[in-house]
Design brief:
By secondary structure, this protein is of the alpha/beta class. It is 33% helix and 19% strand. The chain has eight helices and eight strands; from the N terminus they run E-H-E-H-E-H-E-H-E-E-H-E-H-E-H-H. Strands 1-8-7-6-5-4-3-2 form an eight-stranded parallel β-sheet. It starts with a strand and ends with a helix. 44% of the residues are buried.
Length: 216
């Protein structure tokens, strides 16, 4: 079982982003998690390609880019050029998901697929062997600081069973309401990567908080 942590920069201090990027670089975190929101697929707008490019120049760890946008296939090459190492698209936003995953791989990135809280795991039956990661949203996407959805544990277990049955190498990532209150249970259920935003960046000691999440 992996125990990885990916701090979400959506919760960072954008008036001093370089300082928070440096903190993550010095921390025990494994990846940077970047949420791209378009105000269409989700009811909020975050940041786009120029910010990803700026982060990539300072980051010393891989960029896990989560596209919460319509027609994500249009921007695969652009996010590769901006510095993404892993590109995560929503199943709900991808009409031709297999083609999109292939295109991400052709652009020399890891391919991730995200499931919204209402989307069942069995929808991944025919794609799980091709993807490198599945992100389970444990809140409804679009805003930070939401309450954790408890059905997530069962969903992780179902996904773990599917991965093992299909002999997939996909990692399981969880995003939304992650804290020290549930980190150990999420890892125990089968999660490999925990995304955490406000819980880390609003902490009085973010370095210690990241370390504690990994030790959960």
């Amino acid at each position: 079982m992996n125990k990885m942590v990916a701090p979400s920069l959506l919760a960072a201090d954008f008036s001093n982003l370089a300082k928070d990027i440096d903190m993550v670089n010095r921390s025990d975190a494994d990846w940077f998690h970047l949420d791209i929101m378009d105000g269409v697929f989700v009811p909020n707008i975050s940041f786009g390609i120029p910010v990803v490019e700026a982060v990539s120049k300072l980051a010393k760890k891989p960029l896990d880019v989560h596209l919460m946008i319509v027609q994500p296939e249009r921007y695969i090459e652009a996010f590769k050029k901006a510095g993404a190492h892993l590109l995560n698209v929503h199943l709900e936003a991808s009409t031709h998901l297999h083609r999109t995953v292939e295109e991400i791989h052709k652009n020399d990135m890891k391919a991730g697929v995200t499931l919204n809280p209402h989307s069942p795991v069995h929808l991944l039956e025919d794609i799980i062997e091709q993807v490198d990661l599945v992100l389970i949203m444990s809140v409804n996407p679009g805003f930070g600081g939401q309450k954790f959805i408890h059905n997530t544990y069962q969903k992780i277990e179902s996904l773990k069973n599917l991965i093992e049955r299909k002999k997939s190498r996909a990692l399981i990532e969880v995003d939304g309401g992650v804290s020290l209150d549930n980190a150990a249970d999420l890892y125990r259920a089968g999660a490999d990567v925990l995304v955490s935003g406000s819980f880390i960046f609003n902490s009085s000691d973010p370095l210690h908080t990241i370390s504690q999440l990994k030790k959960s």
